[in-house]
Design brief:
Layout lengths: L19 E4 L1 H5 L9 H13 L8 E2 L12 H7 L10 E2 L3 H10 L3 E7 L2 H8 L3 H17 L3 E7 L12 H14 L3 E6 L6 H13 L7 E5 L6 H11 L3 E4 L19 H10 L8 H15 L6 H7 L1
Parallel strand pairs: 1-8, 2-3, 3-4, 4-5, 5-6, 6-7, 7-8
Bound molecules: 3-hydroxy-3-methylglutaryl-coenzyme A (HMG) and magnesium ion.
The site of 3-hydroxy-3-methylglutaryl-coenzyme A has 26 residues, from helix 4, helix 5 and strand 5.
């Protein structure tokens, strides 16, 4: 049972009127569940996310099934998806093999995923940063030749569990390399959730100075230290209008120590509603979806807003 309620609207200066939420629950969320979620449950989850008004839903990954068994059903998921008009359904693709699989399955938008640090490149991709770029180059080129959008994720932008502090110039350089490859959008990952708002502002300033257009930049915050919402507000104030979030706060990354869930979409929606920022996503329907998914997973949602409204 969901209690009615939305915050009063009181606007702040220097914020966009509308933003795009990239819903990453089905991919970033489910990849980190110890249980393998059945295909039928994933399909219903995707359906309910579209029903709630999401227009950009990252649905799965075409990675090696031994590395991420939770998403080994990518082909079946894409073929059985009830594709809604106007909804974009990108998938993660690491290499040429992944691109072939994704194209055969009929996907029309992809994301590659790079690292701002050597250690995570090795752990997540089994490659050095330079080797990973070589692996991505034909993927981006092949996808762009076919007219597909290509998001370029950059992980560990604000801290790395093995390397510690990540120099901002290192992140800017890695971001520039993804743009040079032909990525149409960047998503800046705080994979282990350690960033604070000043760091976010500082990185975005440096990216703009390096010539990157903030209209093509998304932010991807994990909420390990409870900073995701504050960091998002800092990014919006700096000019970002694309925010990644995960229904019910599902998520993490199986190859990054101490990566817990993403920013919960409901927590984001509550703040945006209070600031008068449009998203097209219905909070009540999403809370019901996350409460249902929590039931499927056998544990309560970590989202504060889901807890406040659904239980
Ligand atoms: P590898 O073992 O180095 O692969 O893994 P390889 O190129 O040496 O190939 C070995 C075998 O795997 C070959 O088969 C390939 O065909 C097969 P064999 O010839 O031995 O029979 N293979 C594949 N099979 C199916 N699909 C594929 C594929 N690729 C190779 N795509 C690889 C390299 C990149 C594949 C591996 O490291 C991998 O799959 N990594 C994925 C890790 C992952 O998914 N991590 C989570 C996503 S990133 C994330 O969550 C962060 C993010 O949310 C942002 C943030 O929070 O910061 C995006
Ligand atoms: Mg992530």
């Amino acid at each position: 049972m969901v209690a009615a309620g939305l915050p009063d609207v009181v606007e702040l200066d220097a914020l966009p009127a509308r933003i795009t939420i990239c819903e990453v629950g089905p991919r970033d969320g489910l990849q980190n569940e110890s249980a393998i979620v059945p295909l039928e449950v994933k399909l219903e989850f995707l359906d309910r996310l579209a029903d709630a008004g999401h227009q950009l839903i990252e649905m799965t990954s075409f990675v090696h099934p031994k590395w991420v068994p939770q998403l080994a059903d990518a082909e079946q998921l894409v073929s059985r998806l009830n594709r809604r008009p106007g909804v974009r359904y990108p998938v993660l693709v690491p290499n040429a093999r992944g691109l072939d699989r994704a194209l055969d399955a009929g996907v029309d938008e992809i994301a590659i995923f790079a690292s701002a640090t050597e250690t995570f490149a090795q752990r997540n991709l089994n490659r050095t940063m330079a080797e990973a770029l070589e692996m991505f180059a034909p993927v981006v080129a092949g996808a762009r030749e076919r007219g597909l959008r290509v998001r370029g994720y950059l992980s560990m932008c604000f801290g790395d569990p093995w390397e510690g502090r990540v120099p901002l110039q290192q992140v800017v350089r890695a971001a520039g390399e993804l743009v040079a490859l032909g990525c149409t959008e960047l998503s800046l990952g705080d994979t282990i959730g350690v960033a604070t708002p000043g760091q976010v502002r500082a990185l975005l300033r440096l990216l703009v100075e390096s010539g990157i257009d903030l209209n093509t930049v998304a932010v991807h915050f994990h909420d390990t230290y409870g900073q995701a919402l504050a960091n998002t507000l800092a990014a919006l104030q700096a000019g970002v209008t694309i925010v990644d979030a995960s229904a019910g706060g599902l998520g993490g990354c199986p190859y990054a120590e101490s990566a817990t869930g993403n920013l919960a979409t409901e927590d984001l929606l509550w703040q945006l509603a209070g600031l008068g920022i449009e998203t097209g996503v219905d909070l009540t329907k999403l809370v019901e979806t996350s409460a249902w998914m929590a039931g499927q997973l056998g544990r309560p949602s970590p989202s504060r807003v889901v807890q406040a409204l659904a239980y």
